[in-house]
Amino acid sequence: DVNIDILKEFKPRTREFRELLRYPKVVRDIALVLNEKVTVNEVVREIKEIGSNLLHHIKLFDIFRSESLGQGKKSLAFQLEFYDESRTLTEEEVDKEFWQIIKTVELKLNAQLRGK
Length: 116
Hints:
- The protein is of the alpha+beta class.
- Helices cover 31% and strands 28% of the residues.
């Protein structure tokens, strides 16, 4: 049975159009070795806290566990997406922010850059 009255109450969402970016995005990947107890949300929170308005997306794309990392350790790999809607970013400004993010996560969460 279908209740028509309930269906009538349903309102479709209005669609919003956002103009495509005119300037390129800069994407950087980062893999961090952390204690198994550190959550993805904790890492994302720290990255967001240090990131400027140039950092728009943080995406977890890999979780790796292996004895080669050490007992009680895991590797979390993130993709960071930087852009500005009004201009093209320089490599220097993205690098500065990227390495600041790494340093902060290393200090606050006792992380290690994987492959370092």
